[in-house]
Amino acid sequence: MRTVTYFFIFLNLSLAVFEEPAVYPLPFLVTSLVEVLCLLVFFGRLTHFAKVTHRNVFWKDTKNICIMVAILLSLTDLAIYGILRIYDVSSIRWSRIVRPIFLINFAESRQIRRAFRSIRNTLPEITYVFLLFMFSLLMFSLMALKLFGERNLKTAEGLPYFKNYLEIVFDLYVLVTTANSPDIMMPAFDFSSWYALFFIAFVIVNTYIFMSLFLAVVYNNYKKHLKVMFGGVNCD
Fold first, then answer.
1. pTM, rounded to two decimals
2. DSSP type of residue 95
3. Nearest CA to 106 among 60, 62, 75?
4. Is 230 helix (H, G, I), strand (E, B) or coil?
């Protein structure tokens, strides 16, 4: 039963690759039939679990309620999407976001729930580091707007360089990953090589300091919650 459940969970999650917009599109009838089959298997597994569990225990278990709600939402969305498709009305499959619920809430997914619970408990404790990082990103973006926005610089494509504050925030956010380095700094560097100091300072503060700090906080808090969950067992 565990193998069958995992297989159909994987199949249900994989439908996103074949549903519009898709990497490898398949006809709607094919994907809808596969999804209905998966939902029937999930309902059958839930019914089987209800047969071997006391009624009060079954209905008090939040996991079972989540699975039933996810099945109903998926079927409702599938029916609405199919009807709208018949009348050539554009729509989206909003129920895709509930599919991971099946992965987390089935009884076979105990280890996944433990990991998910540890991640959930870790999130509030990394909020302060994330807010500091965002404050630094916003301040550097404001400095970039003041430094480069009034100099009428152009990118290699001939577009205005660092004129819009929100676009600057996004470009510098990408620079944290160094994915757009050194292209993002070249218009300023061509104007004056001293402007390279701004980008060097940004990378040192945000990429090397804040990202390392962020990773350390996430790791230490996740490990702490994992130890508590397993009763103080060494998780190193």
1. 0.62
2. G
3. 62
4. coil
